[in-house]
Predict the structure.
Amino acid sequence: MNQPVLILPESYNRLMGRDAQRTNIMAARVVAETVRTTLGPKGMDKMLVDSLGDVVITNDGVTILEEMEIEHPAAKMMVEVAKTQEQEVGDGTTTAVVISGELLKQAEELLDQNIHPSVLAKGYRMASEQAVKTLNKIAKSINIKEKEMLKKVVITAMTGKSAETARERFADLLVDAANMVSEKVDNKNTIDTENIKIEKKTGGSIDDSELIHGIVVDKERVHSDMPKKVKQAKILLIDAAVEIKETEQDAQIRISSPEQLQAFLENEEKIIREMVEQIKASGANVVFCQKGVDDIAQHFLAKAKIYVVRRAKKSDMEKLARATGARVVTSLKDIVKDDIGFAGVVEGVKLGDEDMTVVKECKNPKAVTILVRGGTEHVIDEIERAIEDALGDLKAVIETSKVVAGGGAPEMEVSKELYDYAQTLSGREQLAVNAFAKSMEIIPRTLAENAGIEPIDMIVELKARHEKGDRWAGVDVFGGGVKDMWKLSIIEPLKVKTQAITSASEVATMILRIDDLIAAGKLGDGGPPMPPGGMGGMGGMPPGAGMY
C-alpha cells in the first residue's frame, strides 16, 4: 500500500525547496568569496595551476573564474555574471560577483524568516532600478577631450595590477591610442577596442613598452635580399595568391617531350612575371599578401627592392588597412592609385627571439599597436589583462561621457538612498530593499578588509559622511581613512557600476527563484549531469593541482 513511486532513476538526485535554495546560495557565495580578496588596489593575487602544471597568476576576476573548473550549476551562473560584465564593459567583474554573493547572503537571512522568494525577487528588482537611477543622478559628465580626466580613469583601473609601477606611462599610451582610433558616428563618440592591437614580447622591462602609430605584424620578409627597412612606404594589401593557381578539379597535364616541359615551365614563369609587373606598376614598395607568394615571384620582387610579407592574418590585414589608408585588393589586374596606403617606415625587427614587421609613423592611423614588454610571460600576461580592463573603462567613458568616483563611494551613496527609498514602501518588499541596501556596503567593507583596515569603523564613518551629504566619501586604502575620492582622482566609468549592479541583481534573483534541482539526462550527452551523492560541488581540479 505504501510502495514509493519512482519517477527518476535511482542514480539521479533531486533537491527541493529550502534544500535547493540553500545549496545554490552556498555554491554561489563560495565563488564570490574566492574572488573577494582580489578586490581593490590592495587585493591579493591568485595562483591557478592546471593538471599539466601550467600556472596563471592574476587578480582579474573573470580570468580566475574562467580558469577554475567549476561544476555546480548555480556557481556556473556566477561565472556568467563575470563574463557578461567583461563583454559589456571590460572591467568591474570582481565587483559584480562580490555584490551577487552578498545579495544572496542577505536574502538567505530573509528566507529563514519565511519571506517568500518571489517577494525577495520583486524587492531586488525595485532596488536595482532605484540604484541605477541614483548612480545616474550622482554621475558627473566630463569632456572626453580632456586628456587628464581620461588618464585618471586609466590610472584608477590599473592601480593594484602588475602594471601599476608604470601606470602613468600606460595611461599616456592608452589615452593617445584611444583618441586615435575613436570615431564619431551619428554625433556619438564610438571606439572599437579591437583596433588597438596588443602585441606581447618578453624581454626588456615594463618601461620599454610603447605605442606604435601603426601595426606590428608577426611575420618577417619572405626573402633575405629584400630591403630590411623602407622609408616613405607605399603599401599594397593583397588578398590573392602571387603564385600559379591550382585547378579546382583533379586534372592531368600530359607532357611527352622536353620541349613541352620547357614551354610549360616558361609559361608558368611568364604568368608570375606578369603578376610581379602588375605589383611594380602600382608603385608599391611594400606588399602584404594574405596568401602565398611563389619562390620565383619572391626572387623578382627582391630584385625590384620591394618588401614582401606573405600569409598575413586577415585581422592584421584589416588593421593595416585602417592604419595606412590602403584597401585590400583581391585582383592584381584592378589595382588603382587609391588602393595604395602610406606609412613613414616599414621595418623588419627582431623582438625577443622572433622576427617581426613593424609598420609605423602612419599619418592618421585608425588602428594602432601597443607593444608590451616585460621580464617574464606571467608579467606581460597580467599587464595585458590590466590594459584590457583599462581599455574597457576608456571605451565606457568615451561613449557615455559619464563618470563617478571610486573607493566604494558610489556604493555607499546608493546604500543610503535605498534605505530612504525602503521607508516609502509598505509591503514586505521593504525588507528586500533594505537587504539590497546593506549588500551595497560589501564593496567599501571589502576594500577596507583587503587593505588591513578595520571594516566596522570604516563603514560607520562612511555612513556618517554620506548622511552629511559628502557623496564622494570613500575608502582611502593607502592613507587608511575616509577621504573625498574625487579629490584623490579615483575616477571610474558610470557604466561599470550600473552594469555590475544590474547583472548582480539579475543573477541573484534567478538563483533565489529556483526551488527544485532535478537531474536532466537529455540536456547534455545523455548521462546524469550530477553525481549520485549530491548536486556536485565546486572544484574539479585534479589531485595535486589547485589554487593557492
The longest helix spans residues 258-281.
